[in-house]
Amino acid sequence: MKELVRYRPGEAIRWLHTGAAGKRKSARDKSRSIVVPSDARGVGENVRTAAGALVELGKGALADLLHSQAMGTEFVLMDDGLEVIRGGSTRKIAYRQVKEIELRGDRATLVLERGSLTIKPPAYLVAGRVRVPIGWSRNEIEVPYELLIEELAARCGLDLDER
Questions:
Q1: Domain ranges, residue 152
Q2: Is residue 14 assigned to a domain?
Q3: pLDDT (tens digit, 9 = 90+) per residue, 33-73?
Q4: Number of domains in the chain
């Protein structure tokens, strides 16, 4: 029996958590400034500040949700099959059940004997118009996003069908 291979979201995913903490702090600071009475500020400015604080809280909550969802995702490659762990549920798929692997952009769809499974990046790094998928941590070593899909194709004995 070979060692299990575990793919988890890469270290960059922690930036979502760090970003959420920053948004929460910003919202806290804005909401404190509303409570402090000031003769110099009008009601309209207080309303704008309150709205800004609510938006920051919403962004922080969304970042927290995305971080939790990504951290709960794991792909475990075993000798005979793949185990997909997402949000507390586990699904085991034997390699022989995979009939085809379709690759569309960054999404890979495993066409199974019954049904399908889509693998997509846990998150993206975005700089201007460039969008790069966050990679994986493969047994605690950072690897590119595509490696999971390529290793799955090799274990299933299939070629990638790029569309």
A1: 94-162
A2: no
A3: 555 555 555 666 666 666 666 666 666 666 666 656 666 78
A4: 1
